Amino acid sequence: MCWDWPPAASAGAAADHPGGVIADTRAALTGKLSHEDLTKYNYVQKLLYAGIIVVEIVIVLSGMSIWKPVQLQWLTALFGGYDVARYGFTYLHGFDRRVPGGS
After folding, report:
1. Number of folded domains in the chain?
2. Residue 61: which domain range?
3. Is the residue at 46 inside a domain?
4. 92 part of a folded domain
5. Residue-level pLDDT, tens digit, the chain, 103 residues
6. Quick check: pTM over 0.85?
7. DSSP string spanning the chain?
């Protein structure tokens, strides 16, 4: 896998500490993100891919809460009620479709 965890000792300075996320984000926003090794994901990519996984889990759980609101009352209540779960599901599902790598 290309996640390289724990980071290799010979990697660059940004790969040796958690501040690499901030450094990679800053470099990406300024257009200076290095693309030397295309076989390894940078910290921004790793963070976004992990975020999509969290969004997918919330989509499934909110979908279950609007599919069976009586049987899964605790889950529906966790989302703040049926209407909130329904709007959240719709919003997140739309967001997920617009992000590359989303389902």
Report:
1. 1
2. 13-98
3. yes
4. yes
5. 455 555 554 444 444 466 788 888 888 888 888 778 777 888 888 888 888 898 889 999 999 999 999 999 999 999 999 999 999 888 888 877 666 555 5
6. no
7. -TT-SSPPTTS-GGGSSTTHHHHHHHHHHTT----S-TTS--HHHHHHHHHHHHHHHHHHHHHHHHHSTTTTHHHHHHTTSHHHHHHHHHHHHHHHHHSTT--
